[in-house]
């Protein structure tokens, strides 16, 4: 009989791996809270037009990578390939920007892209994203960058590089676009097929091409074509990053892969990821809210994959806290003891302790092995002798000390016995 397996490009997080995920997620939530971001959750599928219009019809995401289907009502829907357009759609739909002129939100959510699976790059990945909508201030740019950078630092990652650039605005980008076309047109035959298509449609994307990395280094830099307003904004972003103690490196070829970016573009990279070294990145998108049907409002944000966080943590050898250990394992021998164990486990759980009880009627030796496997702090042994005496044997698995505890006292004063240091 054929065995089912996870779909290519997807994965299972097994119980042994879950503590590492929980650790990363808890650090993310703590840092987001420290920066004043509140959590937002959006549906996993949206109207396809949201991504065509928001992400950009000419992007690789829309052209090649979306999971799109027609539902039973004949509507074209798409599994969420990135987080920003759904967040903007939700803020517009619920009038969030009318309630508050500036909104700061973050999310932890699965994204879906049909692409060639490789280490840290999967068809389903979990994204940490953050958005500040309604603030034109360069401080908003610096804050989202600092949130991503310091979160990675709190996770124990080192040797991080923040790549920073400005891609200008609708006022100054046309002139820069013309410079790029003039630069690359004579070299068109040496570029890859994708870049030859991009030269007329979106020449900035040539700078983002992995196949032609060696051919873009001498291209004109966007920062040399910025209008006075964009140049001033970029200078303030850099000075604010310095004030926040976030080091950066200028990268004139950094444009990111989405059409809606304006002004600031950034990404954070780690040498512990190999050639595909980006942990996450983002930028400013001052026209996106209006483009998606809202009143004009500036925005800035980022997206970062948790799988890449975990890969960098593992490759760098950063220790990850183990999951919370089991407080009490109840080893019961016989049905009467099992009933008494169930009664005591209910009392333990009612006091906030984690508690497991044998479900298979195994021998005491096998149950103790299971308690060790579960890293239980205490084992409560109940058999015929314990039932006759009205007490259980409480074993400290760290000190190997053991003591008799009356059932009534254990039920009424669980904390004292479980927190004591058992005497041998």
Description:
- There is one protein chain.
- The protein has 424 residues and is of the alpha+beta class.
- The chain has 2 domains: 246 residues, BirA Bifunctional Protein, domain 2 (2-Layer Sandwich), CATH 3.30.930; 92 residues, Rossmann fold (3-Layer(aba) Sandwich), CATH 3.40.50.
- Helix content is 37%, strand content 20%.
- The protein has 16 helices and 16 strands.
- The strands form 3 sheets. It has an 8-stranded mixed β-sheet, with helices on both faces.
- The model has no long low-confidence stretch (mean pLDDT 90).
Poorly predicted sequence stretches spanning 5 or more consecutive residues: none
Using the 3D structure, state the CATH architecture of the largest domain. 2-Layer Sandwich
Strand content is 15-25%
Could you please say which CATH topology of the largest domain applies here?
BirA Bifunctional Protein, domain 2
**Main sheet attributes: strand count, strand direction, barrel closure:** 8 strands, mixed
- How helical, in percent, are the residues? 25-40%
Q: Write down the overall mean pLDDT.
A: 90
Radius of gyration: 28 Å
CATH superfamily of the largest domain: Bira Bifunctional Protein, Domain 2
Distance between the termini: 54 Å
**Spatial order of strands in the largest sheet:** 1-5-6-11-10-9-7-8
Number of domains: 2
CATH class of the largest domain: Alpha Beta
Number of strands: 16
- Output the number of helix runs: 16
Helix/strand/pairing category? alpha+beta
Shape type = elongated
């Amino acid at each position: 009989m054929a065995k089912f397996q996870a779909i290519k490009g997807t994965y299972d997080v097994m119980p042994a791996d879950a503590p590492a995920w929980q650790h990363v997620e808890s650090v993310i939530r703590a840092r987001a809270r420290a920066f004043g971001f509140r959590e937002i959750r959006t549906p996993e599928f949206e109207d396809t037009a949201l991504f065509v219009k928001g992400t950009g019809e000419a992007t690789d995401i829309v052209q090649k990578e979306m999971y799109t289907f027609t539902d039973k009502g004949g509507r074209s829907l798409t599994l969420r390939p990135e987080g920003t357009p759904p967040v903007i759609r939700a803020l517009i739909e619920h009038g969030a920007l009318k309630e508050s002129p500036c909104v700061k939100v973050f999310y932890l959510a699965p994204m879906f892209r049909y692409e060639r699976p490789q280490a840290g790059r999967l068809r389903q990945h979990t994204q940490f994203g953050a958005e500040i909508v309604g603030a034109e201030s360069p401080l908003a740019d610096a804050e989202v960058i600092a949130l991503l950078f310091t979160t990675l630092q709190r996770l124990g990652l080192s040797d991080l590089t923040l790549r920073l650039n400005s891609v200008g605005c609708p006022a100054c980008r046309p002139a820069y676009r013309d410079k790029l076309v003039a630069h690359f047109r004579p070299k068109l035959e040496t570029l890859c097929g994708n870049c030859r298509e991009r030269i007329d449609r979106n020449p900035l994307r040539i700078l983002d091409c992995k196949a032609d990395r060696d051919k873009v280094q001498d291209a004109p830099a966007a920062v040399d074509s910025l209008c006075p307003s964009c140049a001033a904004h970029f200078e303030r972003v850099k000075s604010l990053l310095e004030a926040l103690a976030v080091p950066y490196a200028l990268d004139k070829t950094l444009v990111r892969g989405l059409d809606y970016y304006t002004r600031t573009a950034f990404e954070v990279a780690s040498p512990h990821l190999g050639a595909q070294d980006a942990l996450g990145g983002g930028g400013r998108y001052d026209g996106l809210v209006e483009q998606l049907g809202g009143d004009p409002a500036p925005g800035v944000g980022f997206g970062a994959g948790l799988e890449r966080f975990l890969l960098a943590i593992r490759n760098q050898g950063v220790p990850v806290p183990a999951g919370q250990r089991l407080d009490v394992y109840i080893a019961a021998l016989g049905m009467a003891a099992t009933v008494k164990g169930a009664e005591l486990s209910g009392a333990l759980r009612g006091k906030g302790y984690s508690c497991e009880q044998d479900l298979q009627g195994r021998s005491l030796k096998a149950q103790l092995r299971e308690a060790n496997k579960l890293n239980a702090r205490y084992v409560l042994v109940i058999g015929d002798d314990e039932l006759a005496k009205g007490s259980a044997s409480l074993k400290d698995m760290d000190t190997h000390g053991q003591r008799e505890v009356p059932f009534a006292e254990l039920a009424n004063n669980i904390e004292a016995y479980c927190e004591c240091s058992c005497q041998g």
